[in-house]
Design a protein that fits this description.
Chain lengths: 385, 385
């Protein structure tokens, strides 16, 4: 059964001390339902990683259903580390495509700034392999820094070669009123940034923040086609895993889960890398962006970092990425990120990208990565008109 | 598309200090795959509530996939408080019924005894409404005790009237080699038990424990029908919610989410309460059992507690419940419980219930309840031969 994105919304990211996690989620939920012009969904699926440790709330989907005025509907929270958002979309899509519900609301939400940064960093480490990574003190920046260093040594690159990804992300955030870091950075800013975990600095790292995004997924024939905007269809999506710990992989520089999920999503959508007009990459760290570009078929191994140039990845480049600022500058509220990516990809398909609109975008891909590339969901959306 | 339970397993419950959460989950996963005679599933869905706070591990489905030798498959964790297990079954079933995967493994797992009981009780309170219940010190026993007292006062019952549920559960656990509390209790034991939250005592309360259970769900036509046992089909299931906080419900003694989910499951399965041969009730507390029996159509409001008699609920009664000990005596590893219930219901349909076999069981229902009856999943399974 064909499924469509019939409503979408995203809140401003940043330090949202004005709202609790339930109200932040409800803000996105209600706006997405308004956008879909419906108040009837059969279920709500919430993508969230850390509401227990950081917001003292589990059973979160029921809480959000209640806050959003949807008491009665089925409610399920989905957790897959930083890939929770896209995994929630996968679940909602299956509930619709199987005929269980005509329409399902997905809300991705994370509240990360109501506690100390140290506590939040420790909580994020729960996504690493507890016994073989986190217990030994490895945080995510540390794990990815090792991957970045291995890449630089294997292929002979310098730190500076990665700068273009962050420069592009910050530039694009300027045109996104919902983004957290709406200011430009230069290559020199990138190079001079304080080191977080060598060779990675602050300008390699996506910021912790609060945020919520929502989409409504509806079965074909169960909504009225609108005259004022094109329909957006979920052409295909897939999830895949790798070993949880980086050290146990045959090749730590090959993202097998990105390869597998992208391959299957391409198959289902009937497209290939050359057909993608917009790519919302999971740019939590540039090294991950590079490896994901390679595994998803956009560059050969060892050449992904060469895409960090404006004619490649800028809004008018060959493959625009991080079009609304990406994780780096829009912000990375972890469980919400995958839903933000979906919304941002679909904005271009609707022609609602504002000053950041990618011209003539017809097929958009979003890739959401959890753990150290341990679980990855790739989704491809298409414009119908 | 019709879907079947083609494999199932459950571990011994109790204090499983011999294994970590990943190994406990893998134990059930591998046994269920063996039972299904397959090593090929497209995804793993893990039902779990508290792996973050209690086992220092999120991204749990990827971790379990890795531990169970399933690296590569899609992996999703589902959280819906104590209804996490059945919600995971709902997600897996949708992934199969939508055609995304031919076969999906569900693992319910919880590790609750590696920390202090006080810490575990606090973590369980994360399933209550954080702002309106938990923050004020309300634990689950306290919330349910208020419901039990209201029931007793409204309908004129005594504490003793509830005893039969716990007596039945402990009796049935004697015949279940995987159960935690394999010892009988009498009505006097029930009455003399230390009070936890008046009017509820220890013998009203399901024990905290570790445990994992697993089932394999497969699409019709994607598995070989076996000669040595009947096929078990998931006839219908549904999830529904009520307000998160008990105090905001119109009637705290009416479980609207049980009513809604049971009604839809009956519709999908084409059966009614009179057709149910086995009912795995969510007997975390007898007051919840009573209200669930009423809302699910097995008794009129105010009369559910009258079913606490052997000719009603025992293995040879009119509606056998808690047939393998229920939450009360098999144990309640919260995120795993819904999967234990599914396995136990299906054991009767396969004729593999051992000394606890319910004769001629053809239709079995399981009901999994999260929060103070805030989110509820009802599932109905049928025997085909």
């Amino acid at each position: 059964m064909k499924t469509y994105v019939t409503g979408m919304a995203r809140t401003r990211t940043g330090e949202r001390w004005d709202v609790s996690i339930r109200d932040l989620a409800a803000e996105a939920a209600e706006e997405a339902l308004d956008d879909a012009q419906t108040d009837r969904v059969g279920a709500i699926v919430v993508g969230n990683m850390l509401s227990g440790p950081l917001a003292s709330q589990e059973n979160l989907a029921t809480i959000v259903a209640d806050a959003a005025g949807l008491v009665g509907v089925e409610a399920i929270k989905v957790e897959a580390a930083c890939a929770s958002g896209a995994s929630a979309i996968r679940v909602a899509n299956a509930l619709v495509a199987s005929g269980e519900h005509d329409s399902v609301l997905v809300v991705g939400v994370e509240k990360m700034t109501d506690t100390s940064p140290g506590h939040t960093t420790a909580a994020l480490s729960l996504a690493a392999d507890g016994d073989y990574e986190a217990l030994h003190g490895a945080t995510f920046p540390a794990l990815v820094a090792l991957m970045m260093r291995a890449y630089m040594e294997k292929y002979g690159y310098d730190r500076r070669d990665f700068a273009g990804f962050s420069v592009n992300a910050h530039k694009n955030a300027m045109g996104n009123p919902k983004a957290m870091l709406r200011r430009p950075i230069t290559e020199e800013d990138y190079m001079k940034a304080p080191i977080v975990s060598s060779p990675m600095g602050v300008m390699d790292s996506a910021p912790i923040c609060d945020g919520a995004a929502a989409i409504v997924i509806t079965a074909e024939g169960r909504f009225d086609r609108r005259q004022d905007r094109p329909a957006v269809r979920l052409l295909g999506s897939a999830g895949a895993t790798d070993t949880a710990a980086v050290a146990t992989r045959r090749d730590p520089l090959w993202l097998e889960a990105a390869y597998r999920s992208a391959k299957r999503a391409y198959q289902l959508a009937g497209v290939g890398p050359d057909d993608i007009d917009v790519f919302e990459a999971h740019d939590a760290f540039p090294a991950i962006t590079v490896l994901a570009l390679e595994a998803s078929g956009f560059a050969k191994p060892g050449q992904g970092v060469m895409l960090a140039k404006c004619d490649e990845i800028c809004l008018r480049g060959r493959l625009p990425i991080s079009t609304m600022g990406g994780l780096k500058a829009r912000g990375h509220p972890v469980g919400a990120t995958g839903v933000y990516q979906a919304v941002e990809a679909c904005l271009h398909l609707r022609g609602e990208g504002g000053s950041n609109q990618v011209e003539n975008a017809r097929i958009a891909m979003a890739q959401n990565i959890g753990g150290s590339a341990a679980c990855i969901v790739t989704s491809i959306y298409g414009r119908e008109d």
